[in-house]
Design brief:
Length: 366
């Protein structure tokens, strides 16, 4: 039986409204709510991480990437197949493969040609993508205090800016160190690499980012409260505010590399995995019936080949950079460049999925 036929059969076997609601609720609980509680519980641990060497953060990032971070985008080749009824397996794989090859190659070339600009572009792209992921998770959760596209874009700015912007305010020295490591892969002269990233860490840049984040957060919270006063669910708004508060605390307190490593695996990647479970009828049916391990096993099977491919990309970048890889910081930098190369095409696939599911359509949600 083909995948398309299997999807159609699964839809016939399970009442759509009841099954979808049950699966969405389970995905929200296991892939968003519980991990958010876990991150909040880790705040005391995060608060002491600035006392430890940055290598602790590097190890945490590597572990998180190995366990779930790399896998969360490794099913992109099946997304068009599963999210649309008129796309074959062959076409789904072919189109996504071309997108990854062209855009991923362009990102790597950009780092060779203009490493500082490419680093800034990566930060901006990640800001967009991590906000994009959280907005989709809020839609899955069925919140109704973000009914318009403008309010969801404001939420994107806040949610994506918390991991990308707040560490620039709280721990600029380590943030700068990572920037120097990345640029240093392509600018062999260490002093030149340090000088190249200077404009990114001057007080004016930090003040601008801090002002943007504070203003956007206040506006988003206030706008949501206005919707609650007009009849929107207070519970959904309180959850949104609670998550934003936990993320503000996490990225203010924890050392940046450690904070990003935990967030990437425990927050962003898991939320996206949950979203992909919902577009796979068999996995959605399993999790809707309470079989979380079964849903994860199916996802893991689908993600395994390209997860390995992602680590091969890391290896290829490591072998190609002019400065070579000689220290843990170099390994982190190489991993981030490889992740940047995979992030741009991944964002394109996710944006297509957003459009297909109407994430930015007014009133979209449960």
């Amino acid at each position: 039986m083909t995948e398309t036929a299997t999807r159609s059969a699964a839809r016939r076997e399970t009442p759509a409204a009841e099954g979808d609601d049950r699966a969405r609720s389970a995905v929200d609980r296991w892939f968003a709510l519980y991990p958010a509680i876990a991150l909040a519980a880790l705040l005391p641990v995060g608060a002491v991480t600035p006392l430890f060497p940055v290598e602790l953060g590097v190890a945490t990032f590597a572990l998180g990437t190995l366990v779930v971070g790399m896998a969360h985008g490794a099913v992109d080749h099946l997304v068009p197949l599963r999210a649309a009824t008129d796309v074959s397996l062959r076409r789904s794989i072919a189109v996504v493969s071309v997108v990854y090859a062209l855009l991923g190659g362009a990102v790597v070339a950009a780092f060779f040609l203009a490493p500082v600009a490419a680093f800034v572009g990566f930060i901006a792209l990640t800001w967009l993508h991590w906000g994009q992921g959280d907005v989709a998770a809020l839609v899955v959760a069925g919140v109704d205090h973000l009914p318009t596209a403008a309010e969801r874009w404001l939420s994107l700015v806040v949610r994506g800016g918390l991991p990308m912007g707040v560490p620039l305010l709280s721990h600029p020295a380590e943030y700068r160190l990572v920037a120097e490591w990345i640029v240093g892969l392509f600018v062999v002269d260490g002093a030149a690499a340090a000088a190249a990233v200077d404009p990114l860490f001057v007080p004016e840049t930090r003040a601008a980012v801090g002002g943007l984040m504070l203003a956007a957060t206040a506006l988003a919270v206030g706008s949501g409260y206005r919707r609650v006063r007009a009849g929107a669910s207070r519970r959904g708004w309180l959850r949104d505010v609670g998550e934003v508060g936990a993320l503000w605390a996490w990225f203010l307190l924890a050392a940046p590399v450690f904070a990003i490593g935990v967030y990437f695996a425990l927050w962003h990647a898991l939320r996206h995995v949950g979203r992909l479970v919902l577009v796979d009828d068999r996995a959605a049916s399993a999790i809707g019936d309470g079989d979380v391990p079964g849903a994860l096993a199916r996802f893991g099977r689908d993600a395994a080949p390209l997860t390995l491919g992602g680590f091969l990309v890391v290896g290829a970048v490591g072998l190609s950079v002019p400065a070579g890889v000689a220290a843990p910081g170099d390994l982190l930098a190489v991993s981030l460049v490889a992740i940047a190369a995979m992030t741009l095409p991944h964002v394109v696939v996710v944006a297509w999925l957003d459009r297909r599911q109407g994430v930015w359509r007014p009133g979209a949600g449960r």
